[in-house]
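Chapter summary example.
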Amino acid sequence: MLTITAIPAFNDNYIWCLADTDSGKALIVDPGQAEPVREHLRQHDLTLDTILVTHHHPDHVGGVNSLAGDAPDCRITGPAGSPFKGITQAVRPGDEVTWYSMTFRVIGVPGHTLDHIAYFSATPVNDHPVLFCGDTLFVCGCGRLFEGTPSQMRESLASLRDLPDDALVYCAHEYTLANLRFARHWLPEDDNLRRFEDKCQALRDKGMATVPSLLGDEKRLNPFLRWDDPAVIESAQSYCTDNGLPSTSEDEVFAAVRHGKDHF
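The structure predicted for these 264 residues follows.
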C-alpha cells in the first residue's frame, strides 16, 4: 500500500513522504530540514531509500546530505546541472524515475529556478495521479521568478496544465490564503474563487493543510494558469495600462499577473 504524508518544516514548507507500507521503505521529496524527516521515519518505522529533489534552493535541499549520512545507500535523484551537488542520480526532462510500483516522468519546469523539475506519476495513490512540483505551482499561485523569465514560467506551467485534471498537486508551501487574497483582488467578481477561499480559510482555522489540491481546480481557479481566460486578460490589460506594461500576448498576460502578485 502506498501513502503520501506531509511533513511540516520551517514556517510553511511541506516535505513529502511517499511510503510503501508493505516494505517499510520511504521516498522523501525536497527535505529542506533533516530532523522533521528523521522523526517522521522513526514514528512510522520507515527506512529512507530515495530522495527526490526538484530544485536547489536551501529550503528544499538543506537536509539532504544529513539524511544521506543516515542512509548511505539512499538514492538522491535531482536535476542534471543543478547548483546542488549532492545528487547521485541526475535526471533530465523526459527521463523516468522508478520507485517500487511507481514510475515518475521528469518534467522540466524552469522559471522559479533554471534547474527546476517536477515529477509526475500516473500510478494512483489514494485514487489520484501524483504531481510533485516543488515551487513551480502552488494552490492558486506559482513560484517567484528568481532565475527564469515569464515566458519560461508560463511554458512550464502550460506543461503542468496539460496533465490530467484528477492529478493531486503536492506543492512545497502553505501559501494558499496569501495567494487567494491576491487572486480575489485580481478577479473580485469570481464567485468560485470566493467560495474556495472560504473553504481554505475553514481548513486553516482548524489547523489543517490546504495542500494537496486537484489540478482540475487549479486550472479553473488559479490566475497563473488562466492566461487565456477572458477575465484574467481583461484584468491584465487594465493593470498593464496603469503600469505601462504590454499585454498583447499570453506571455505578457502571465507576466502582468506575476508582476501584480510581486507588487501586491
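To summarize the output: The chain is about 35% helix and 25% strand.
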